[in-house]
Specification:
Length: about 60
């Protein structure tokens, strides 16, 4: 993977992470440190899944 490809992957992961974290914050009623950490971890897992799904679908 080239540097350009790695940078694009990192940017896409970051974008998904931010969007999913924002969605998490909108959906919870109170913001606690543990909930924020849990939401960020779940958003990261969702971001990885979204990128993997998009890449798998684009290879067809």
């Amino acid at each position: 993977m080239s540097r350009k490809g790695a940078a694009a992957l990192a940017a896409e992961l970051l974008l998904w992470q931010v969007l999913l974290s924002a969605l998490w914050l909108v959906l919870i009623s109170s913001v606690d440190t543990l909930e924020l950490l849990t939401g960020s971890l779940c958003a990261l897992l969702g971001a990885v899944a979204a990128v993997a799904a998009r890449r798998a679908a684009s290879r067809r």
